[in-house]
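This part of the workshop introduces the protein records we will be handling. An example says more than a description, so a record of this kind follows.
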Amino acid sequence: MLNSVASKTALLGALGLMTSTVGFAQPVLEEIIVTAQKRAEGLTDVPISIAAVTGDSLEDQGIFDMSGLVDSIPSVSLQTSPNFSVVNVRGVTTGGANLGFEQSVGMYIDGLYVSRGKQANSPFLDLERVEVLRGPQGVLQGKNSVAGAVVISTRRPTDKFEAVIRGNYEFENDGLGVEAVVSGPITDSFKARLVASTNKVGGWLDTLPRQSSDGSTALKGRKDQNESEIDTIRLSAVWDVNDDFSVFAKYEHAEKKVTGTSFGTTGIQPGATIAGTPFLIIDDFTTRQPGFDTIDNGVAASARHVEVNADGTGVVVTDKEDERTVDSDALTLQLDWDLPMGMVTSISTYSEFESHSNYSFSPAPFDIFTQYEEENFEQFTQELRLVSPGGETFDYVVGFYFVDQEIAVPDVNQIYALSLSGGGFVPTTFDLQTNREFQQSVEAYAAFGQVTWNVSDVFRVNAGLRYSYENKSLDDHSFQVGFFDTSNPGENAFAAGLFGMSPFTYDELEDTKIHEEGVDPSLSMQWDMTPDTAVYLSYTKATKAGGFNAVTTTANNISFDSEEAEGYELGLKTYFFDHRMQLNVALFTTEYTDQQVSVLDSATNSFVVNNAGAATSEGLEADVRFAATSNLELGGALSFVDAIYDGFVGAPCSPGLSLEADCDIATNSRNAKGDKLPNAPEWSGSAYFIYSYPLDGMGTIRVRGDVFYSDEFFVAVQNDDYAAQDSFTKADLSIGYESADDNWSVNLVGRNITDKRTTSFGGGTALRDGAYWGIADAPRTITLNADYRF
């Protein structure tokens, strides 16, 4: 550990030495304006640890989604699960693929609350700014934001006409994207902006040919089979009714299609055998799959779909590809009324999506698990707030928030062809299919306020409070099991027991209503030590509501409790050298009570939500920017996070050689007190340079380089060394040209240029204890971007 600390300290020291000796120009860093406290403020004026990135910077770096952004923000990562991705802040995230589980990091796009990733298929399209707020955000951001918040602002219609056409081509994986923007005034008081885009992300994982597990089909291997396509159209408008009243409206429609699989085997314990047999798992895999390989070598799981045969008496393997589709719509209406008492703002949003999934969810080379799923989602939110003009002894923000939400999963059909897993030793009486229905409705209300007491010109006290009331209703939930071969009821029952299946109907459930209310306070103090240096000390409490397990296979685990977070933070924000250098430092500790944890139960091959007893995340974050010359900017960031469970009774045990000494074999569970949280590297950091070279009135060449480092971390709840991502370093490099008249530009962006293969999510393989799977992060990409402005 000391060597690790020393190496990173030396890295920052070298960066500081380099920046102190370059050039003699006197440039000034441009301050980024943020809206984290519901009013426009400079980044250094906000007593919160924030990372903010402009839309222009994202485009220069060739970043089109959240995965590209989080690489450059230490203590923030993206965890990709089979159905969607979630943001992790300081080691805390939602995780898993439980449809009833909301995110611990709240996302807000122009005031629209994104509780599920499928609501926003193109969140990084035509952006003004992205703000990542680290730590609990219980008062102003509010709903469920116990780990942090991501606040995204899209570009608004412009006062002058502009039109842009952008295109990109990705060489390594054959990706292609086109975006068109038209914006400008229609009348003196009305302006609009239209954005349309289509984007294809090429695949990079292969599946290998083999014979199907039932011997009936020759399965084709597919090269670069994990592809995705997203088509989006967005129309926004601003109507300035008069000098004091304006209307902003936005509509967005997106369609996303993902084909292929992105997960596969990451490793197998030495000597691991199929349970109850002397047969090695590695021999089983290599026999089933000639040329068997792991996902870090670019090979995904070759499992294929299992379907009910024509007469309904059994199963048959097909060569279908995995496919997931999402169609989403979102509406935002914002009214701003500038009154003497302050700005009154009303934000009304409506969001809906419909998704269909059809995929094999076995990460091993056998065709035994297939899932067909449909999900429908609707949400309406209303926020009404008053923000004082500012500059008074007491400044304030007060507001009201309402959300009405419905989730309907009318059909989840899973087929378990267990007879195909045992090389002829498992009878067909073990083959089964399940049907699940789930429907949930939510009504939540909140009143919030924050008062800033400007005690003097250099000292401020901020006090906030949020009262929340939530009704969550389980309107339908059932789970049924059926067998194709019912000749031996005892074997049928044993097979269902292997996966912890106990059928139930909605009428049998008792716990179908959740009523919660609570108060979340915040308190912070800010002291401007000098005109360029401020320190702050803050306390914040945030609550995440309880809910229902959408994927449970038994009525005994139908719901989970609410979660609370209490965070303390001490921060420094300062400028040096006449605003040429900016430094932000934050020390933090956050304690979680009844933390909601999504656990992959390898026995049932499904994610269920449990409440861990407690967890603590504490550490340090620092970032620096330095305008070394008028042409050169340098920067970096460093994070240390110690995120551990203070108690987690019922945590799943690790399999095989990794089995913990304190594991209760009868329940396959233990108390994980002292274990690290998943996706929580202790050290992470980044550094960058941006160099601009003017060509004497002929345009500008811009070069940017980035390097990112992460310590090792676990990709599952268990602290199992076989389910860990080793420490790694990745690097990006780009070079671009911008014309002298600013009408066109072109740049070549290389991301992960050393092609480092990593995973951020995984676990143990069902029916093969000792084998592990993971979902692959993006490999090297080389993209040519070009745009023309009319």
